[in-house]
Amino acid sequence: MSDEKIFAVPLKVEDVADCHFYHTMEVPGHGLMNGEWDLRGGVDDYLGRVAFAGQRVLEIGPASGFLTFEMEKRGAEVVSVEVTAEHGWDFVPYPASKLEEVFGPRRMVMQRLKNSYWFSHAAHHSKANVYYGDVYNLPAALGQFDIALMGSVLLHCRDPLRIVEQCGQKAKSLIITDMFHPDLESAPVCRLAPTPQKFLWHTWWHFSTQFFTQFLAVMGFTTAEILRHQQYRLGRAYTLFTIVSKR
Predict the structure, then answer these.
(1) How confident is the model over 188-200, as a mean pLDDT?
(2) What is the pLDDT averaged over residues 219-237?
(3) How many CA atoms, within 13 angstroms, populate the side-chain half-sphere of residue 246?
(4) Distance (Å, whole) CA 38 – CA 43
(5) Distances in Å between the alpha carbon of 239 and those of 8, 42, 243?
(6) How much is the average pLDDT of 31-35?
(7) Which of 50, 83, 134, 237 has the most CB atoms around it within 10 Å of its CB?
(8) How confident is the model at residue 88 (pLDDT cuts 50, 70, 90)?
(9) Which residues of 34-60 are buried (b: 16+ CB within 10 A; e: fewer)?
(10) What is the domain-level CATH number for residue 88?
(11) Average model confidence (pLDDT) for the chain?
(12) How many domains does the chain have?
């Protein structure tokens, strides 16, 4: 059970011009919206080929909601967790003089991203709920879940294992999808992505698959599936991995 009072009131967004689409997606009544990532040809692999019918799903970082609505189409009840307007992003702590140039624009992009979610939510007649809050401290009021999905979000977070831990406390099965880095596959490691020269304010880590499978095993989860699949960003193919673990 969950406390319905903690969920956001749907935002009424009428103009698609107020939206920023992270995912390429068909919006009923409005046609195709182009985004950075096009997952349409690989949704089932991205989601770990899991059966969602009748499952309550906790989704971390829905962006424009493409995966939210795809899981709903497959029979899931979805609760999405997104950052608050005040938080905005888990910024890599470059000097303030460098970050100042991205704070304002990022706030605007995040609001337009949230607009795209609610615009699509209405068009899909979605029943998904959204909780705006601290992903590192998920409230008990969210309730318990069958599945928690962390789809290409942990690389953007300072403390990815804290999020995995939080999800593991709330769900019986975990799905983790992220970028595949073959040079890291010999050990359970993560690598810091930003450098002084490469201004990656938005991305913290590169992961090996073993980094997660070992931690999941520590938490008492058994990995049932590790998939590799191709997904497309701005027309270019990237290899991602999806780990499905169960307790």
Answers:
(1) 96
(2) 97
(3) 5
(4) 10
(5) 34, 11, 14
(6) 97
(7) 50
(8) confident
(9) ebebbbeebbebbbbebebeebbbbbb
(10) 3.40.50.150
(11) 96
(12) 1
